[in-house]
Design a protein that fits this description.
11 helices; 6-stranded parallel sheet; 7-stranded mixed sheet; Rossmann fold; alpha/beta
């Protein structure tokens, strides 16, 4: 329970019964990402955070109970689930743009209690079924993979494109896994050289530090995906894109950042932003997981219990060498 920014407790809380349309999922694994660190530190934009809150928006588990009106055949099913709670009534929801829902923002793990717990309650309509044999440890990474799939949806894919991914964290490496079947070249840009091996295993054909990328690959790439979320990473992405290329921005920097609109215009760049994942991107990620084209489990380096949640957040926040995906196992 994140009581307020900077204060996290592990304690017993009562489990609510599912209301009509909801299910109770027994959490198998729950992931931690940079947005959880922002939530802990009070750096997440105010409309997108609430306290007190049980974090946890990356998760996998087994359906344990269902509310009224929910098909009981879901009981015992392995699942993952979308987290943004759309109204399903407004015009954006009607065209599948749940991130643009006009009813306001609500999301599991940020404004509604999430999966850093033994159980999480979610609408049945947001579930995605997995095979009974699915590796739930790996499946806990399908949520960030859906965000990566959304980035690639914004990329307008063309076979044999030259692709740069700025940021060798979870989102960046999952973008590489999803892009490797069509990209002609994938360069991952990250200052941590210890990530080279896992980046190459994820599909990267090259791996360089940001300063090397800026001097050696100016205006070279057809597509650049910004997945670092640090100050200056969007600017570097614009440097790397060729004239007429496309830049997809995924990361949220910790403070206000600037880019060169002069470069955007004179290089005729197409600039796209991504926040969360659409239903279509979730379907893409789940299909890739089922077809074994996607394996988020390859990125996991640490597994801890709920009582070590504060330490797990420190690991992610520290960006230390050898720290990849950190999971909690309730």
């Amino acid at each position: 329970m994140l009581e307020e920014p900077g204060r996290i407790d592990v304690r017993m809380v009562p489990v609510a019964n599912p209301v009509p349309g909801e299910v109770v999922v027994r959490v198998a694994w729950a992931g931690i990402c940079g947005s959880d660190v922002d939530l802990r530190d009070g750096n997440r934009p105010a409309p997108f955070a609430r306290y007190p809150i049980i974090p946890g928006h990356e998760w996998s588990g087994i359906v344990e109970d269902v509310g009224e009106g929910v098909d009981r055949s879901l009981l015992g099913q392995a699942v993952v689930g979308e987290n943004i709670r759309p109204c399903s009534q407004c015009a954006p929801c009607g065209r599948g743009d749940i991130q643009g829902c006009e009813s306001g923002y609500d999301e599991t793990g940020f404004t509604i209690d999430g999966a850093w717990a033994e159980q999480v309650i979610v609408p049945a309509s947001l579930l995605h079924l997995l095979p009974a044999s699915a590796d739930l440890r790996s499946a806990a990474g399908i949520e960030p993979a859906a965000c990566a799939a959304e980035a690639l949806r914004g990329a307008v894919l063309v076979r044999s494109q030259r692709v740069a991914i700025v940021g060798g964290g979870t989102i960046g490496l999952l973008c590489a896994q999803l892009a490797r079947q069509w990209a002609g070249e994938i360069l991952v840009v990250d200052p941590d050289m210890s990530k080279r091996d896992i980046a190459e295993h994820s599909g990267a054909t090259g791996f360089v530090a940001p300063d090397v990328a800026a001097t050696g690959f100016d205006s070279y790439f057809d597509l650049v995906i910004e997945a670092a979320g640090v100050t200056g990473s969007a600017g570097l992405s614009i440097v790397l894109a060729r004239r007429g290329g496309r830049v997809v921005v995924c990361g949220i920097p910790p403070r206000h950042d600037v880019i060169s609109t002069l470069a955007v215009v004179t290089k005729r760049l197409q600039l796209v932003s991504v926040f969360g994942a659409s239903r279509g991107a979730w379907i893409d990620a789940v299909d890739a997981f089922k077809e074994q084209r996607l394996d988020p489990g390859q990125l996991v380096t640490h597994e801890l219990g709920l009582d070590a949640a504060a330490h797990a957040l420190d690991l992610v926040a520290g960006h230390g060498a050898g720290v990849g995906k950190v999971l909690l196992r309730p």
